[in-house]
Amino acid sequence: MTANMYFLSSILLFVLTAFETSAKSVSISNVTTYLNSELSLNNGLKMPILGFGTGGDGVTPSVVYDMVINAIDAGYRHIDTAFIFHNEIEVGRAINDRIRQGIIKREDIFVVTKIWNTFHSRARAAEAIRQSLSNLNLDYIDLLLMNWPMGYKEGTIDEPLDKYKLIIPSPVDYVDTWKEMELSVSDGIVKSIGLSNFNSQQILRILDSAIIKPVINQIESHPQLSQDKLINYCKSKDIHVTAYSPLGEGRLLDR
């Protein structure tokens, strides 16, 4: 496997639709087919099917600016980052530079970021959203996801550990996090909200209390981890699924 093949698998995101494709059909040869394709979310807004992710092993913030510049120039209009990637500043700088240069308009780019596990209380979630907006230097976020359905002890450490080297959990219910995400939509600083790495029971808990329905569940999905049951469940609830690592972090290319 070449470094370029691994890199492609790390950054590729693909939205799985009920009638167009599945993770099994994703290949390098048909990537460009989807660059200009969009789908309608359950709130009526549009989302580009093919996304450019900015996280992954070996993807340091120092190279992210050039990555995003190259992605925009190649035609990507769906850019995915997260607080935990620690590269929102570089992602935002690249997007804003291309806007300033007249290459794109703000409305041309669909920007996704995520609330990390140490920001699950409502106050901390609000702080995380404000910080992401500041880092990205944007007036709004197109799609905000809850990164995982569990909280960690709040503080300045991304992964707080106890003396046994185990994650210290937070007692905060992720439903509370969702309520703050809903408020960000009401405030106009986030257009759409969704989930990441949620199973069907966790999604149902959100749906039972939600005022605003999740538009996306972003999960790892590829031929070695098809997740058909979860994908079908999401489809039954009118929630689209975004696959990350749809090439199995390069394993599917090493054949």
UniProtKB/TrEMBL annotation:
Domain NADP-dependent oxidoreductase: 52-253
SUPFAM superfamilies per UniProt: NAD(P)-linked oxidoreductase
InterPro entries for this protein: AKR, Aldo/ket_reductase_CS, NAD(P)_OxRdtase_dom_sf, NADP_OxRdtase_dom
Protein name per Swiss-Prot or TrEMBL: NADP-dependent oxidoreductase domain-containing protein
Residues spanning the signal sequence: 1-23
The keyword Signal appears for this protein: yes
Keywords: Signal
Site (Lowers pKa of active site Tyr): 114
Keyword Manganese: no
Short name of any one Pfam family annotated for the protein: Aldo_ket_red
Single GO MF annotation: oxidoreductase activity
